[in-house]
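User: Can you fold this complex?
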Amino acid sequence: MSSATTPPDSDPTGRRRVHSMLQLYYGLNEEGKVVEQAESLDPCDINGPHFDPEVYLNKLRKECSLGELMDHESCTVKQIRSLDSDMQTLVYENYNKFISATDTIRKMKNDFKKMEDEMDCLSANMAAITEFSAHISGTLQDQHAQITKLSGVHTLLRKLQFLFELPARLNKCLELQAYAQAVSAHRRARCVLQQYSHMPSFRGIQDDCHVIMEQLAQQLRQKFRDGGSSAKDLSECVELLLQLDEPAEELCDKFLSHAQSRLAADLQGLEAELKDSPVTDTGDILEFIDRGCNEFVSNLCLVIASYQELFINQMANGKLHVFVDTLAARYFSLVERRIQEEKGVGDNSLLVRALDRFHRRLQAISKLLPGSAVPSQGTEIVVRAARERIKQYLSALQTFYHDSLTDVRQALAAPRGATSKDATPSLPELLTSLSNFILNQLKSVLASVHLFTAKDITFSNKPYFKGEFCSQGVREGLVVSFIKFICQSSRQYCESAGDRGGSTPPALLLLLSRLCLDYETSTISYILTLTDEQFLVQHHTPVTPVTALCAEAREAAQKLLNHYVKVQGLIISQMLRKSVETRDWVNTIEPRNVRAVMKRVVEDTTSIDVQVGLLYEEGVRKAHSSDSSKRTFSVYSSSRPQIRYAPSYTPSAPMDTSLLSNINKLFSERIDIFSPVEFNKVSVLTGIIKISLKTFLECVRLRTFGRYGLQQIQVDCHYLQMYLWRFVSDENLVHFLLDEIVGSAAHRCLDPSPMEQSVIEVICERG
Amino acid sequence: MEDDAPVIYGLEFQARALTAQTAETDAIRFLVGTQSLKFDNQIHIIDFDDENNMINKSVLLHDAGEIWHISGSPAEKAVLTTCYSKTSESRVLTCAAVWRMPPEWESGSHESPDDSSNNPQTLELLCHLDNTTHGSVACVLWEPMGDGKRVISLAENHVLLWDLQESSTKATISSSATLEGKGQLKFTAGKWSPHHNSTQLATANDTAIRGWDLRSMSQIYCIESAHGQLVRDLDFNPNKQYYLASCGDDCKVKFWDVRHINEPVKCLEEHSHCLQCHMILQKSF
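Assistant: Here's the predicted assembly.
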């Protein structure tokens, strides 16, 4: 209200405010509707519609002081005054507007009257025009019908012209070799010509067309026959010929024969590659398969597709199947030949990838030609290749095993020549390196074979590769066969080489025996578990159990160890035998020394003990006296406890000794000379010593001894007694055999007077 | 036989030599030679009566020495050869001789054993197979199915073929062969093959088995390392001409086809003791 004094036009904001307040007063909002003003319910609001002057005054009187009231009064008066002036201004303005509006309306009234007249005139004119138009159309009716007819004739004539020009056009097409155009033109005309062929003129055209089309068909056939064109051209050709009502069957045959010749060329290319290049630089198999896939298989697919597009409705699929099968068979034979050349076992991934590609591309055929045997044959080839591969790996493993054994042999042989001390410590190292070599090789082979079952290989989800390949192929064919092979070849060392000159070094026998034993205890189960884990072998078919393999390995180990004992025993036996056989025992001098051969026997036994100790555990021996070497000879003490040895051979009692010794034998434990040994050092040494002493005994029994001969045997036996007891499990065994030897020597003696025990001891102590 | 109790015969001395009385066709009769260094050795004639399952024996005195090998003539029942060791001048030499049993032994065979052992009859010496130049004799072999006129003796490394003349009282060497080689080679055993017209001989020395052709007196085959250890004895299959059996100190019995000597036909490994002296009395194979 402060701006009420300012002139209304000078300030638009003030004016609008005034305006809005007026609207408010009249209960109008901007849209002109009466609205309840929520805030104006207060009766004390001087601007609200519910303003109650009485309440307002009461309120003021109650609340305000006199001064304030005075102020308020003056303020209110001022406001009323400004409002009044505002109202006056507004009323004046509106009055002017009303005046001008009345003027305008009056002017409009005059104008409308004039326009009404003009409109009447227009409607009259329009009626006249309508009348004229109807008149004109009535007169033009006849001509229109005529024109329509004429245009119909025109089109017919054009058709006729087309027909008449057809031969020429066809000829032209023929010249330009636009066969497709010609055929489509002819097709359009053919029905009409056929229909009106009774009319001579059309007949002529038809005949001309026939001749031309015949020519065209001839040319097409020629082109078709030449076969030089691409597959696409060929199929186009066939399509045109089909449209020309060529016999489908014949075409189909021809088509196939052409396709065959082209595919055969591809095959020949492959074959040439296979034949020309020597095996060594054939290029890798992947390239070959790639070439086969890109050339042959894709062409074959193309042929199948176009064939099906062209003939599928007319011809049975049988022909196509036969066609595909024969070609695929040739292709497969080539591929198989190529795969067979793949003998190197170094990198399997190349082969697997090649097979994968091969297999993958054949799947395309199965999509194109459902029910075809080709993909399954392809799978079979892959399966065969995988089988073959496993066989190759097995033989490679076997070769590797032989090679490593040869290496071991060389390692065993080489240092022995130089220094015997250096050779022996390497035995456990050789064993570990050998077994590690084999294990690593086996693992790498498994890894290579594992490629066949990799997830990204298409054929890995075929049933064969899921089941049989893993269980029968890899597990049985590869791993189990290899383990069996190891056992087998180990056994062969015992059987063939053993008796014939002993070409196998004994240390190798020992080493192999330990290897087999290790296989039995841990390696076999480890390998098989590894295989089962890697290949997730599901045993649908019965497989060789671990226990059977272990038993086999143990048997082989046992055989090898037995053989080792025999070979070593034989070596020592030969020494003893020669020493007994070559000596004249009757005329020998009084013993002063232990014979050198006995020392040699003890030395050899000690070195065998060391050798065996490197690979085998000590083993248990029966409890023995604290110092058995000092034991007096049982010839005099145990077997003939009371009587002296010599008197028993007096002629008066010839029966006593033999009877006594026989009874003695009955009660002593029977000794199995070539009995199997246990897997420990003591048992092995016991076996060797048993064989040696038994041979010694047998040789002594065949000789005749003089007095000093017997004494020498006594000395020798005592010496052996001193040193051999510590190697065997049961020292009584040595005692018993040595007793037997001395006893037999005494029995075979012409003058059996034995040496004093103390003298024997002195000689033996001296060396 | 299986039903009967085993028949056991005991000797008072050790013995290593045993043979069948080859010329005897009716009775089952064996000859055993004893070995004793101190006492006179004997030859026991053991007669087995298979109907009554019992044994009759006679003892002949063999005072020349201990018997290492004995062999009966195929033609004459009473004639036999022995290899015996003789100790002279503190030398032990194994000699061979042809003997004839005294004619009375058969009549006295039914005497009580005490009599025969107390008063044994002595063998009649027909001739020595004189071997002073060739060394100790390992064994003497009669020509199988021959007329008792030809014997072979194996002495050290020599094969000697003797002709017996004048009722076996004179022996002359008709031909001989010598095994040459490294070291001291010595025959340990031998057998005269009954096949091929008795023209073949097989011998054993150390671990090798050799075949000889008696017409040319040359070696025809040799199985080196036939056994892992010493070959103790060998014999031919009487029914199959090329088959040979051998046994050795390696506790094995092996069967050989002499046409394919690389591998034995069969190998038995059942024994766990050294196979000692044995005679292969094979009737069928």
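The domain at 1-184 of chain B is CATH 2.130.10.10 (Methylamine Dehydrogenase; Chain H). The first helix of chain B runs from residue 113 to 118.
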